Amino acid sequence: MAMESAFTLTRITTPSSLFCGSSSHYHLRSFSFSPKLSSFNYSLRTISSAPFVVTASSSSPSSPSTTVAESQGLKINSVPTKPIEGQKTGTSGLRKKVKVFMQENYLANWIQALFNSLPLEDYKNGLLVLGGDGRYFNREAAQIIIKIAAGNGVGKILVGKDGILSTPAVSAVIRKREANGGFIMSASHNPGGPEYDWGIKFNYSSGQPAPESITDKIYGNTLSISEIKIADIPDVDLSQLGVTKYGGFSVEVVDPVSDYLELMENVFDFSLIRGLVSRPDFRFVFDAMHAVTGAYAKPIFVDKLGANLESIANGVPLEDFGHGHPDPNLTYAEDLVNILYGENGPDFGAASDGDGDRNMILGRSFFVTPSDSVAIIAANAQDAIPYFQSGPKGLARSMPTSGSLDRVAQKLNLPFFEVPTGWKFFGNLMDAGKLSICGEESFGTGSDHIREKDGIWAVLAWLSILAYRNKDKKSGEKLVSVADVVKEHWATYGRNFFSRYDYEECESEGANNMIQYLRDLISKSKAGDKHGSYILDFADDFAYTDPVDGSVASKQGVRFVFSDGSRIIFRLSGTGSAGATVRIYIEQFEPNVSKHDMDAQIALKPLIDLALSVSKLKDFTGREKPTVIT
Questions:
Q1: In what residue span(s) does the Alpha-D-phosphohexomutase alpha/beta/alpha domain sit (predicted)?
Q2: Which of 122, 125, 476, 575 counts the highest number of beta carbons within 10 A?
């Protein structure tokens, strides 16, 4: 049954700096509530130009739900529910097909289970941040999250305009505003739209993804949940900057770019970068892939750094990413690759993914592997990036990432850490002051300026390196290129040839059987075993003990490490939404400069053949070839 309520409207004064263009003062005309947590429905009419506050004065619902409390001047209803299978989080939150999340109470159960898992002091009367990558279902999901947060006693929600906040920006806002945590609505680099993927994750008070101790509790609570606490409030208009109040609970809609841009200006020398980007003899292309960084690209690259507007490709965020796959790699960012490898291509190209935390770096006819990228940023950071003027505190990489970064840490005499895949494992090291720069081979690079990997940060870091190397170049002089920087690095440190083979959406049973077969194989392996021309140094299933809190992560990837330092690694990815993604990583170090220009697939072919043979991948998965080669 519909719910009736009276509301009063209060005009507030808000600094003009919070608003982009004009905003409107609304008068609430009517609304209704569906007890099945789909959403409130309401209509608005504009009555004047000013920010607004909606204040609940009374309400008297009549619905099947049970009123359990009057909190902060709000009516809190208890909606009965039952556990739903399959809500265990992966490497980075809970990801499923959109249609799964749209099932009755599916998202609501997980959100309530989260609040049931957190200590009261982590959210009661506190501040939480909410944002996402703009994908399909985010608008509806935002309203559900806001109402359940209010129902559980959260004091305030800070949400990006239209629900937009990149993953790095959420981390930045949490840290700047000293929030208790934040929700990120994203399935990252996975495709969006009614038939594709959606995801949700929670970040803690330092902006880092929730640790496994919390995600395990969330999963446990999804198995026993019986009620959802939801506030009787209407949908919030997320298209207008300003504050909406319901009793003691409030929602503030903020500019998604401002806090993040301010942080970037504090990390980098924008005047140095502008000197390069605005040069007539330097051409730059950034592909936002119709994803969330489209909201950031123009304010940063065009308005602040002087790039041409034509430098931004696919710069409008779309709910389905323009029918594309927002994963910045050589396969899914093929259009950008073709531009950089075309005749007289631009000097520099970059792309970011769905939620803005991944990156791909290209020079003219030159691809920079993510493993090389983080190593080169670390090697040049102190000279080129003001944030690191005193030098990095330490360096770290995920276990499958190549050893390029290890060699930089050794040369610079810096602490070095090898962690499991998943950005959350870097957070403790950063909070303990042990880590400054880190990266993953899966196109994730970042530093301790936030607690997430950061696509635009990586692009700005590369632009800073190029700008620093070219700061004294006069017009007409040959510029130091991306390829020049990389090849100079190889000459100094040696080259780690590296490739990753992805086999997406394999049948889970076959993929799991393959990993179990490999675990049985390593249990019988010993140093000195011969695999073709390679001699085994050791084989194991990687485990990690956190040096800060002593927590242990086991079964993080099957490794075969050979006497010459070559490695083959097998993992099942936790970032997909269906089936299993098998990933094979192949690495070989080459100190000989005369061999550095070899194609990686040629240099690594003996190891690739060995990996496929040892794993019996075709037998277990039926796959003849990978979906993606990096």
A1: 87-226, 259-361, 371-474
A2: 575
